Amino acid sequence: MTERVYPFLNLTLPENDVYTNDEYGIRIEPIEGANEFEENRRELDSEYRSGYWHTANVYIDQPKDEADKIANALSMILSFTLSRDVTFNGRFPENTEDAPFLRMSTATFDIDNTNNPLVKGLITGKPNPGVKLGPFLDVVLDEVLPLSEAERKDKLSPISQFLEAKASVFASTEFLLMWVAVESCANENYESYKESVGDLFNEEERQRIQDIVIETAEQEFDEKKVDFLERRFRQNYLYEYGIDLKIKIFLEYLDIGFDMDEIEEIVKESKKIRNLVVHEADSGKLINEELNRLGELRKILIYIILRRIGVDKKMQERLVTPMFPGPEIS
Length: 330
Description:
It is built from eleven helices and ten strands. By secondary structure, it is of the alpha+beta class. A five-stranded antiparallel sheet has the order 2-3-4-1-5.
């Protein structure tokens, strides 16, 4: 197989380590200048605070199409992990000095380079105790890369929405994008939930409700209003739990460690804020002196994403992250 080289931008690893994953034929090597970027990217007068800087090469020993897909998945995973836009703009088709550089169009997010990583690594034991990012990447790649292209896209979709939210200029836009990510994950989970416990109303019960409503409406209202009610009561969402309860069911299933009474309040209030932002362009209740609904929703989404990419309850206890504002985890 041919090893293909992808020059990655804004990618650094702890202590300039080289990361290798033999199962998927991946090797990440920081290049000269990576350490300077890492040490200076948060300095107020540093040019590294923003923009794109070639800091690492990613070598992928896979067929061309699969190598490109792996590079794109790595870009998304590492952007989330490092909390900045980690991307690439092309590849060398072969690992040789005279190989031509082929430019590629890739997703980018307008996030500056000053943020702390969302994940610093996993606490490891003997024989090499410490905090290592490599074992975390191993778990995530095992969760993501064996999937089909469509499944991989679905798996990483909340990361894309999270990064797009982080790149947003306005708090209201950031909030809405994160709400969409949380809501879509909860809806996806609800489909599995229905398969195991059944619908709130089965098809026969739904039809009976529609018949009762229409029979009553025909006696009270004109044809136009009856037609409206008939169309309205055919909509499936009317017979399901509301999104606030779906999110609670989802988070209970994930077993992150949130206090569910606190979650219930956060989701209930966040839903109200979502409606105010969408229907009245009012974002005044997002953040005030006592509450930070934006930060709370961000923390919830971060842990949803971590679960989706392979971080189970046991691994969560070994995960080293910054202190995120938001609901407590026990």
